[in-house]
Design a protein that fits this description.
four-stranded mixed sheet, single chain, globular, 175 residues
């Protein structure tokens, strides 16, 4: 069974510890930034640590993943610009990712704007190349979750190990 549990205020370690009490084989997904690296080290010190941790590419957060999906068909940007919850100045995938990362609504920030998130997801679902990228991403994540250690053949998953835990494998997703 695969499920996603969004953490509040980046409570990754606390959420992992709570969930592992009722479910074995919990696999955290962390950002590729310094905070994500910190969570990996903290998770590796848990008893027991996760067998796997999935991490986004270096310096990427979920908003960069949305940008990568939209990059599959940049024509999706014009549809996103037509949405009611979005300022009309998104001219590139980079602009979109930056708006999604920005909290300040006065400058067009969309961070935590769930109406905008819903609308963006709905719009990009109408672009087959964006859907293909979404499927590609999710297939890779399932591979990272389900593939036996050492048997990875998915081109998006790069395996790393960490000093803090010989039992934990880091599956870094790469575009």
């Amino acid at each position: 069974m695969v499920g996603i549990i969004k953490t509040h205020d980046s409570a990754v370690v606390e959420t992992f510890k709570s969930i592992k009490k009722i479910k074995t084989n919990v696999i955290p997904l962390v950002d590729g930034d310094a905070a994500g690296d910190k969570y990996i080290k903290e998770l590796a010190k848990c008893d027991p640590p996760p067998k796997r941790i999935i991490q986004w590419p270096a310096n990427w957060v979920i908003e960069d993943i949305i940008g990568w999906i939209v990059e599959g068909d940049p024509k999706a940007l014009s549809k996103i610009n037509s949405l009611n919850h979005i300022e009309k100045d998104i001219n590139s995938v980079s602009d979109l990712a930056n708006k999604l990362k920005t909290k300040d609504r006065s400058i067009g920030g969309l961070k935590s704007n769930y109406l905008a998130y819903d609308d963006i997801a709905s719009e990009i679902s109408g672009f087959p190349k964006c859907v293909d990228r979404t499927v590609e991403l999710l297939t890779s994540l399932l591979s990272a979750i389900n593939t036996p250690k050492g048997k990875f053949e998915d081109g998006h998953i790069h395996i790393q190990t960490i000093e803090e835990s010989i039992d934990t494998v880091i599956c870094r997703w790469l575009p």
